[in-house]
Specification:
Length: 349
């Protein structure tokens, strides 16, 4: 998951759930343009040992940058929002971390490798969560009539000190759909998972859609393996859009959502008649089935909800068509009856 954390001095990007890969961040005007890898970093080691990782950053801007690295404290509130703060007096882990290149030059389009070492003391236990931030070693001087854009990127680091007493535990706080009744899909489901242990967990699984006793579809939840921090909560959203017709977001020529007058993405109804067999109608049940590893086995988490899909416009059109067909059949029957009656009358005479 990529969340943008607004700050007065800079723009920070924190990675919570993306698999190892690359991230590009562009900032306007004189802001920096960097790619970083891997995303995120997960480390596990017994207390009293040293563990390391190689961090990679590439400057894809038009000029050489002189960058520095610094550490930020990462927290997650009960609503699943991530916060970055400067380390406080109680954050001893700051003194465990060192970099072989805390300040370095980054020529354009060249990958730079910075080795991070973490000297985990014997008294350390359980989870420590921080971000390694890359930013300019010094800000650019503003040009006349132009503002300077400050920017940075950060890699999220999850460190597990494998001490006795580690508890990996989670629970589903809520499982909800955005509506109880739908005319057409998509239906969006939101899962709130709370970490009740002292080690981060990554619940993954599926939502199984049933109509009566028959399963009609399934959608994945947290397929990227996003983590939930201890004592924190996180929301995971998944949409079921396998229907006919289905609402889709309008896009402009550049592939960006078209906004309506309220600033929300505009949607339109797409009628793809090759998918007419996916007309959804009736009462449905959604079964949430997640699992997380508690260090010994996969622990299941389950929840259920129900909802209705009633395509009243399609039903209305069908009713009107049936009425006209019925009127036509009735009129044809009446005409045929009169013809038969005349034929019988002529035969008698």
């Amino acid at each position: 998951m990529l969340r943008r954390i607004g700050r007065v001095a800079s723009l920070i990007v924190v990675i919570l759930s993306l698999p190892a890969g690359q991230l590009a961040l562009a900032t306007p005007s004189q802001g920096i343009d960097l790619q970083i890898s891997p995303l995120p970093i997960e480390l596990s080691t017994p207390p009293g040992t040293t563990i390391g990782a190689d961090l990679r950053v590439r400057n894809v801007g038009p000029q050489t940058e002189r960058l520095q690295v610094r550490l930020l404290r990462v927290t997650e509130d009960d609503n699943g929002n991530v916060h970055l703060n400067n380390p406080g007096p109680g954050d001893d882990w700051v003194h465990w971390v060192s970099f072989d290149r805390p300040v370095f030059n980054a020529p354009t389009n060249d990958w730079q490798t910075i080795h991070m070492s973490i000297n985990v003391p014997k008294q350390a236990a359980f989870g420590y969560y921080f971000a390694v931030e890359y930013l300019r070693a010094s800000d650019l001087a503003p040009q006349p009539g132009q503002a300077v854009a400050h920017g940075a990127v950060a890699t999220f680091v999850l460190l597990n000190a494998e001490a006795p007493g580690a508890v990996r535990s989670a629970q589903v706080v809520s499982f909800a759909a955005d509506h109880k009744f739908y005319e057409f899909l998509p239906a969006t489901f939101t899962v709130k998972v709370r970490n009740t242990g002292n080690i981060h967990v990554a619940p993954t699984g599926n939502i199984f859609i049933n109509r009566g006793a028959k399963q009609v579809d399934s959608i994945s939840v947290n397929s990227a393996g996003g983590n939930v921090l201890p004592k924190g909560s996180r929301f995971f959203a998944s949409s079921w859009n396998d229907g006919f017709p289905v609402y889709v977001t309008k896009l402009d020529a550049n592939g960006n959502p078209v906004l309506n007058k309220n600033g929300q993405p505009s949607i339109s109804l797409r009628w793809d008649f090759s998918r007419a067999n996916r007309l959804r109608f009736g009462h449905y049940t959604a079964h949430l089935a997640l699992v997380y590893n508690d260090g010994q086995r996969d622990v299941p988490l389950n929840a259920y909800l129900s909802f209705w899909v009633i395509p009243w416009r399609v039903v209305g059109i069908l009713i009107v068509v049936l009425i006209f067909v019925g009127i036509g059949v009735w009129a044809t029957f009446k005409r045929s009856a009169r013809v038969v009656k005349r034929v019988k009358g002529a035969a008698k005479t």
